[in-house]
Amino acid sequence: MATADKRLPRREIITKAVCGKGRKYSTITHTVTPPHHPTSILGAWIINHQYEAVKSGDGIEVIGSYDINIWYSYNKNSQTDVAKETVSYVELVPLSYVDPKHRSSTEEVSAEATQEPNCVEANISANGSSVLIRVEREYAVEMVAETKVYVLVDPHGYDDDGKDVDFGLGDDGDYEDLDSDLLEDDL
User: Fold this and answer.
1) Total domains present in the chain
2) Looking at the domain assignment, is residue 8 inside a domain?
3) Ranges of Acidic residues compositional bias (predicted)?
């Protein structure tokens, strides 16, 4: 508040606010060993993704799991099968922004998968007995906590004489004239 006049009275308001944010994109390779030596990969996909967020040091850990399903042929492309494997993971997402004045005892964290785990490549390993699956995923995390907001107090007060104040927002929710290029993502 260096630019504010120190003679004006001010108040400290304690409120909950976003006090930390982060985002992380990553790729990881999993090895799945089907019961038969694969001849070719016919498809690979990720299902049943579940996760939660927990505070961990200077970041937020996303702890989760998903199922990898691989449809493959074997026995010289004469038969097919689906190999299934559940994978557990822990992804540490660093906070790129942290309000140093937040109350750490009130922290609540959340995570959103901005890119659900997705198979981007599946190859048979060099020894021919397993499949290498490359998975991409991305998370955006937030930490909400109590923090202080300082507001200046008008020494003369505000007298509205009991009148309703119209801020010209209207009740029709007309947002058609908004320029979507001016809207921005906070993360």
Assistant:
1) 1
2) no
3) 169-187
